[in-house]
Amino acid sequence: MNQPNPAPEHTGSPLESRYRRLLWAYPGDYQAERGDEIVGTYLDTVDPGRRWPSPHDAVDLLGAGLRERLRGYGALGLLAALPLAATAALNTLVAVSAFLLLQVEFEDPRFARLDPVGPFQTLGALIWLGWLLVGLTATALPGAWARTAAAGGLLLTVAVPLVAAVTGQPGPPLFVLAPAVALGLAALALPSHPGWVARSLPPLTAGCVTAASVAFSAAENGGNMFTSYGSTPEMLAMAGGLMFALVLLVGLGRALRADDAGLWATLLLVTPAGLFGADQLGQAIWGTSGGGPAPTTFAVTAGSILLVGAALLAAALAGQAARHQTVRRRVLDDACPTCGHRPTAMTGT
Amino acid sequence: MATPTPLREPTFLILTALARESMHGYGIVSDVAALSGGRLALRPGTLYGALDRLTDEGLVERDREEVVEGRLRRYYRLTEAGRSVLTAETERLRRNVEAATQRLRARPAGTRTADGTSRGPLTIPGTAARPILRPTGGPA
């Protein structure tokens, strides 16, 4: 076994203080109980001469602290829900991307009264092509690569509107971008080892949406149901609702097997699903001006949806924590009917 | 005690590290790295999360504490339940290894590959041209 670093080298050093600061993600009582041990082990293992914790160390401590908090609330299902929510988010993005590319971006730009960007109506086509590429990556490459690709897709979703604003080129509207960013954030938690179902879904989803779009165009017989982003809010609201309903169904199915991860995933996707309907909701509440809600109206609606989503998550966590405490107290209070033994609280948990 | 599901590799290696003697955090990190040939580098945040989970499951327990040069060392040891789980998992893995070894040994020497070249019995599929699959019902 390698020898640990000699204690005096790092004791009381700036490095130790920086590791201690990273413990803030842990619950207070856990920090008091285990903080010295965790920081001591880090100081034993780091390379001599190091002055700052590495980014991997920071992610490790912040992630472990969050996990410890959720464990204290009896809500580890929330972490288990992240890969499922990410898979649902990515496939919704793939579906929306295929739809918007075929039904909007490739449409004649005169319908939208825009100067075309190459063969597309707006620069938004780059975002949708990017998410289709992320879907392909999730199908063909390891999970870590898919997560990196999702980070790239998210970056593209944020950067393209800025580039469009700076260059004066047309870009996609906010009511499409806001849910795309929310879903992109969720997609960052794609699973490390996806099963064949998760790998099959992106091409299947893109294929189904493409087939439906082609069939719809043929059925229109020259009509133009979708000609610009302005004609898509209803369809986007339906996409958000469908995603929510499907994840809820999966969640209820898993709940029957005493697995609450699917229900946590549903809760995580409330906000992105709600943002898909923000435009419609804004119009219903505040009316329309010139074919759509004003940007401030949309911002207020989207902000309200974000607050409601966060409040629902906080309420679910508080409820779970209260339930967990009650069950724990009951277990600790109950003496064994045979020997009278009372279980003691586990230290460090 | 039987394991309901196979142990994940980090969990298996943590239990293996504790099988011989009680260890503190740094000792476990070093031993797991050595056992995995340097492939698995546990970080302390992850390690203590895993130790908490294993403690909750009754597989690991605290042994003793000592302070060395001002640094707290808390030692952990396997419980009887942890030893049973590790034994069961080791037996499961041993059976898998034996089955795979027998199959590899039973493969006739000089099997011809799809490109017509002759290869020895220990060619690893995926690292070179894949060997021709033996028809179902052949010798095990």
Automatic annotation (TrEMBL), chain A:
Where are the membrane-spanning stretches? 76-102, 122-141, 148-167, 173-190, 197-216, 236-256, 263-286, 298-319
For this UniProt record, the keywords arranged alphabetically read as follows: Membrane, Transmembrane, Transmembrane helix
Specify whether Membrane is a keyword of the entry. yes
Name by which UniProt lists this protein: GlsB/YeaQ/YmgE family stress response membrane protein
- Give the organism, scientific name: Micromonospora trifolii
User: According to the entry, what is the taxonomic lineage of the organism?
Assistant: Bacteria, Bacillati, Actinomycetota, Actinomycetes, Micromonosporales
From TrEMBL, chain B:
InterPro entries per the record? Metal_resp_DNA-bind_regulator (IPR052509), Tscrpt_reg_PadR_N (IPR005149), WH-like_DNA-bd_sf (IPR036388), WH_DNA-bd_sf (IPR036390)
The segment(s) forming the Transcription regulator PadR N-terminal domain are: 14-87
Name of the protein:
PadR family transcriptional regulator
Xref: SUPFAM superfamilies: Winged helix' DNA-binding domain
Gene3D superfamilies hit by this protein: Winged helix-like DNA-binding domain superfamily/Winged helix DNA-binding domain (1.10.10.10)
Provide the residue span(s) of the region labelled Disordered: 99-140
A Pfam cross-reference name:
PadR
Tell me where the signal peptide lies.
none
